[in-house]
């Protein structure tokens, strides 16, 4: 809903999110919104697995943010995940300015 609303008012929107069942395509454009999906292991069941999943999500969010920064560019990135990961995206982009 946020992404489509921003697109409707003229922003270039990219979404970065994990791939999942029914959403396996790594990259696609839906309603003029660029969607980038990264791999993520199954859900964590203990602390070690949680740390692994969280670390992989951070890594892929960073890689995808750099990719989106280059092509197609963006006005807005809608990264769906927990607050710390969105913070890391913002910090990465500020460091690249």
* Strand/helix succession: HEEEHEH
Q: In which order are the strands of the major sheet placed? A: 2-3-1-4
Mean pLDDT, all residues: 78
Number of domains: 1
Question: How would you sum up this structure, described in words?
Answer:
This protein is α/β, with parallel strands linked by helices and 97 residues long. The protein has one domain (2-96). The chain contains three helices and four strands, in the order αβββαβα. It has a four-stranded mixed β-sheet, with helices on both faces. Strand 2 and strand 3 form a beta hairpin. Helix 2 packs parallel to helix 3 (83-96). It is elongated and about 45 Å long.
Name the descriptors:
97 residues, alpha/beta, 3 helices
Brief summary:
This protein has 97 residues and is α/β, with parallel strands linked by helices.
Write the layout of secondary structure elements.
Blueprint: H1 2-8, E1 13-18, E2 27-30, E3 33-38, H2 47-70, E4 76-79, H3 83-96
Parallel strand pairs: 1-3, 1-4
Antiparallel strand pairs: 2-3
């Amino acid at each position: 809903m946020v992404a489509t609303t921003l697109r409707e008012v003229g922003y270039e929107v990219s979404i970065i999110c994990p791939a999942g069942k029914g959403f396996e395509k790594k990259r696609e454009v839906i309603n003029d919104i660029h969607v980038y999906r990264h791999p993520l292991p199954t859900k964590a069941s203990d602390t070690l697995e949680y740390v692994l999943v969280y670390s992989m999500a951070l890594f892929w969010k960073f890689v995808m943010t750099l990719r989106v920064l280059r092509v197609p560019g963006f006005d807005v990135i809608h990264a769906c995940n927990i607050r710390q990961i969105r913070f890391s995206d913002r910090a990465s982009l500020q460091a690249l300015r």
